Amino acid sequence: MKGFGTAWVQGRATAPVLTLAVLATALAAGLVGRFEVAPWDVFRIALSPVLPFQPDWDPITEAVILQVRLPRVLAALLAGGALALSGACYQGIFRNPLVSPFILGVSSGAGFGAALAILLTTSAVMIQASAFTFGLVAVVASILLARLYRTAPTLILILSGVIVGSVFAALLALLKYAADPDDKLPVIEFWLMGSLSGVGYDDMLGLAVCVVPGATLLLLMRWRLNVLSMGAQQARALGVDVFRLRLVMLALATLLAASAVSVCGVVGWIGLVAPHMARLLVGADHQRMLPVAFALGGCLLTVVDAIARSLVQAEIPLGIVTALVGAPLFALLLRRGAREWA
Fold first, then answer.
1. Could you read off the pLDDT of 46-59 as tens digits, one per residue?
2. Reported pTM
3. Which domains are seen in the chain, by residue range?
């Protein structure tokens, strides 16, 4: 598989192949739904705001594509890419391919923030803002707790994330216990399982405001991740301020993960599986691997979301579908790549 990936996406063909993959996935996702639309109509309607196509289609079809499916597909591409890029960054920093974007308590903090906002308000904007804020608070708490110790900083940071995540998980359980079982509790549970239903352009733009700058900075710094992956001693020998660089990259990766979680809820496996797929395709060099992981993560979440909203009559939460799809896929990737990661 590595040889196939190397011939397929490395070199100058990387950008065109990734672009075509993203466009093809977005077009396929635009076709999926109970309201049938022809592929050519999906293409024309989606591009009609910027290209002068003759509007000879049904207004209902236009509303379905532009107001329902397009913002949802764009949000899935951004959120999936953010989770994958965050996961790849965490794996490089901690030098462990089994690390996920939620290792420092982002998911627990964001879940607590969303549950708290759901109990206090019905505003979707406030729910997202609270989830984002508490996700960042959890990571900051993990970093501050880790600084109390001087030995094995990477291991202590991971353990601090476990401690902080456990605290926020307990606080979340307390909120769920206090929530109205007929009103608030089902909303909290559905949010925690992840969903892109009801996502509009405002949500997508809010996500883009955080993801685009954060992803751009990480991609510009991706060669430095190769230095961190060599180990702290080697990085210091090359003149790198390991603590400052690690802190900046952790902050950017956390910003991406918290932004995605605040919009689509707690969606696992994307940030773990997509970097492994990218590593098998183009190798462990982060200069090539990170852009591929971002594109694959967006495509993977878009496909999962399309399955979730079309498999049965009622929409399935994203967390369930990502687990059912991601776990077997991850097992297959581990079998294929075990020798390379050993």
1. 888 888 888 888 88
2. 0.87
3. 2-341 (1.10.3470.10)
